[in-house]
Amino acid sequence: MSEASKIDEIYKESKSLSNLNHINIIKLHNFFRQDNNVVLIMEVASGGEVKKYVHSKGWLSELESRDIFSQLADAISYCHMHYVIHRDIKLENILFSSSDDKKIKVSTL
User: Which of 74, 88, 100, 101 is catalytic?
Assistant: First the structure.
């Protein structure tokens, strides 16, 4: 696949992802091409990765795990209802919206 076709593919994917609007999905506000790059302007999730949080605690209680998983399931269900399949679900792509809030945000890119 050529570099131009890769950029075109990212641009097309960004266009469809910019239509997603869910409390647990990082919002893609805008995107544009600049030379041989696609620039993405996304919502900030300053609370850090869920992966780092789990590693720092060592383990999560059932209640905390259930809350995180429930939010993740809601986000993925919303994606599927909008014909978007998340092809890279992992803890590194799940962030907390802020350091004092346990609301998660799933990165779709």
Answer: 88
Tell me how many domains the chain contains.
Answer: 1
What's residue 86's pLDDT? 86
22-40 pLDDT per residue, tens: 999 999 998 888 887 778 8
Whole-angstrom distance, CA of residue 27 vs CA of residue 19: 9
* Phi, psi angle pair for 99, to nearest 5°: -70, -25
Which residue segment(s) compose the domain that 73 sits in? 3-106
Cα 71 from Cα 56, distance rounded (Å): 21
Which amino acid is residue 96, in one-letter code? F
Burial class (CB in 10 A: 0-12, 13-18, 19+), 13: middle
67 is annotated as an active-site residue: no
